[in-house]
User: Fold these one by one.
Assistant:
Number 1:
Amino acid sequence: MNDATFTRNDTRPAQNTGRPHLAVRGVHKAYERSVAVDSVSFDLAKGEFVTLLGDSGCGKTTLLRIIAGFARPDGGQVLRDGENVTDMPPARRRMGFVFQSYALFPTKTVAENIGFSLTGSRTARERRIHDLAHLVEIDHLVGRFPHELSGGQQQRVALARALASDPEVLLLDEPMSALDARIRVKLRSELRALVDRLGITTLYVTHDQEEALALSDRVAVMRRGRIEQIGRPADIYHRPASRFVAEFIGISNLVNGVAVAGGIDAGDEFWPLALPASALPGARLTAVYRPEHFALATDGTGIPGTVESATFLGANVRLTIRLGSGRLIIADRPSHEAGGLWPRGTTVSLKPDPLRAAVITDEHP
């Protein structure tokens, strides 16, 4: 796509810090005895890119369809720039929608698909179609039919069609799920660059964690129809608000124990940790250590363990370490420092970084 260089910097269109551009207020939706969306509320600022992330069945697509007007909520409101659009038909909401399946008309050309909803003179429609095709770099494909296009090309057509009516809000329902990994990485960068260029408010649905973290200004992690946590990608990853988020995002080593001076007493082990001021001695806590939060040594200091496996991942080597308590720990170390130091059966000392681990209130999964 044009202007596809993906940089997240100060050239990005400024967001409106006043009234939300898109607001969801207490939206609820149930099907028979199953609650799909459970009193969800959140805001998007103008020009913001927010992703709804969760497993299949968590309610993210239902919520997106409610916002678009394709499903009616049992309660709550959807507001666009302060206007209540909850009962407004989709065509009047000023929202563009990209379907997971793209939903292109098989008997229409690319140009006809893009211009399906356009009105006005033929000349004006043709100019708009040309501009949109150029924007998403499919100028040379406008005479083809969907079956003659690759998955990535079909996605571009669907995106151009969603932008044809000049929407204020762009909604995308897992638009890259059918593409292979290499194409997904390329297109997500181009999509984000295009959204930044247009300054359009965007709500994106995916089950792909890497996609959500790479694309978004903020990520809303959904579970059982509710938003478990919403925040910047770095906050979601480094400061999970619950055990579910900690386990769902990335790889986590969770250590349950009791707060003591300087860390957590896990029974068979002491785990060094910078405890928050609110953590009273004796309080039950869970520490979240990511694989990159560990250093390794062979000098006997730290928590002793034995390497059970080492997987080369390019930049890193991922080690599975069995501690004396029986606990399994996943630790990542730069591959350049491995040098054959950690074959299976090697005794190592695990050194957690006490300043980087997150702390959550101990709870059941």
Number 2:
Amino acid sequence: MAQKFGGAHSPTGPQTGREDTPALKPVNKFRGRKVHKSDIRTKLLFLLPLPLLFSGIGEMRAQNATGMVAEFGALVILLLAAWLLRDGLQAEDAYNSRKIARPPVIPRKIFATALTGIGVCVAAAFGMKASLPAALVYGVIASAAHLFSFGIDPLRKKGMEGMSDFETERVAKVVDKAEALLAETLAASRGIGDRRIEQRVETLAAAVRDMFRTVEDDPRDLSGARKFLGVYLRGARDATIKFAELNTKTQDAAAKAKYESLLTDLEASFNTQRETMMLDNRTDLDVEIEVLRDRLKQEGLKAS
């Protein structure tokens, strides 16, 4: 879909003397989250099994139905393993970027390791015409190499020291749902085809992720942030989806202005609430410091 580009010299961009189109500050869309590292090895795993496609075609021409099915089956298994590995690495990155997180529900990397061994075993047995023991050895070696290169999925809950399992689970569940709503909102904004709108949503997303980190730092803030991470985010998602649908049918300037105003209000609300939570945390810290000072005086000690 074509996208509108705005700028200082664009008819639709910010212009001097116009208050209805304020200039937007550049926003780091990756603020508050860890950037996924692109690994060339995962991309190669999608390419390495492709020779099995040609060998399978050769078996088909030779009218060897068993060999054809085996070659194509090995190809599908290895491609499925590469796909699971890619998703598993993305899930692991998301797990590592958060202070409080649950392990992935599906251990994709472990399944990818097992499927890689099975695929190599089948390919060796029918493609290389290796004996069954030799094919099994090839499969075990492939699984071991895969495990050594990529490891296994996170298997334990990750929380902060001093937090109970209930608190960890509660925060992780709320943040997981909020992350899903935020991802749907960002996806809908990209379908609008307007750079300015997409940037505004990215700015809102950065403010939301800052609140994620604040809640993870102190789970006591969850009660105050629950409405923002649930009701407000769900409303932002629904409004973005509806505006995207409307924008594909008609370029309604009034609807666009209302939607941008909504984004501005939401961003301000998230930032204000986060500042309030940070202020409460600072107040709690000051109280603890005063209590410790009084205790030192009672014990006959005085801090310099």
